Amino acid sequence: MDRPDARDRRHAVTVGTAKAAPAGMSRRRRRQVSLWIQYGIFAVAVVAIALLADWPTLRLNFANWDAARQLFPDIVTVGLRNTAVYTAVGFGIGLVLGLVVALMRLSSVPPYRWFATVYIEVFRGLPLLLIFIFVSVGVPLAFPGKNVPGGAVGQTGVALGVAAAAYMAETIRSGIEAVPRGQLEAARSLGMSYGGAMRSIILPQAFRIIIPPLTNQLVLLCKDSSLVLFLGVTLEQRELTKFGRDLAGQLGNTTPIIVAGICYLIITIPLSLLSRRLEERQRRGQR
């Protein structure tokens, strides 16, 4: 048992601590004060920028309504349409090729796994611009007299597709591995072939899991399609960035580039919102 003097000392320490606590600031209060200080710094920075910026010059060069009106309707009927086409073709090629590479990555045949691993590492490591240059210049040099079929659409789709396939393959592989392995074993025990089980049972579930990241990949491809400006495209084959850049050079004003950026947002923001909604629905379904 504790001696009375020891208990008295502990009681005195506890009472002293309780009396001293109000003098200090609680952790929650410190966090609130820190947050208000950050808000204040941000507000001061915004006000300073607003006061120091040359708004008339900014409006003249980046929000010139007369220059913007000259873009329509061609920026929609040509630039926006071609961007959507290039993105869709690249996504389709990337999805099909990515599925093949993912299945090779999971194959029990070593050469298939080696090829898939090398493909994924190489095309995830190369800048997309180099892939565009190789498709547009390297293919005709490697195969004289031959070009990627489909013109600018084919070249852009192949360049975007082979790069996206490396990322999609890893996404698809993770989706397949997320499906309980017992389902494949149960299907095989019922007499289904491996390919039949994958087509009918595993892949449908895997794709439901990976829809959100695939949607994010679609957003990235939409932005990456801007690299088509490095290809020799005609006026009717220009996508948004090329369209805005050409008009900005003709008008001597950067407003066309801003309008082109807004058109990109018209495509990417709904896709991003869709991706987040699908992720939330998937999380609710897992609870």
- In CATH terms, what is the fold-level topology? MetI-like fold
Strand segment tally: 0
Q: Can you name the CATH architecture?
A: Orthogonal Bundle
What's the domain count?
1
Mean pLDDT: 84
CATH superfamily: MetI-like
Instruction: Please outline the major beta sheet.
Output: none
Strand content: under 5%
Query: Which CATH class?
Result: Mainly Alpha
What would you report as the Rg, rounded to the nearest angstrom? Answer: 29 Å
Explain this structure to me?
The chain has a single domain (66-286), classed as MetI-like fold (Orthogonal Bundle), CATH 1.10.3720. The protein is built from twelve helices and no strands. It has helices at residues 4-20, 27-52, 55-62, 65-69, 74-105, 110-125, 128-142, 151-178, 181-189, 194-224, 240-251, 255-286. α6 (110-125) packs across α8 (151-178) and α9 (181-189) runs antiparallel to α10 (194-224). The longest helix is centred in the N-terminal third of the chain and has 32 residues, at 74-105.
Salient structural properties:
single chain, 287 residues, mainly alpha, MetI-like fold, 12 helices, 80% helix, flat, transport, transmembrane, cell membrane, amino-acid transport, Amino acid ABC transporter permease
Quick take:
Belongs to the binding-protein-dependent transport system permease family. The protein is mainly alpha-helical and 287 residues long.
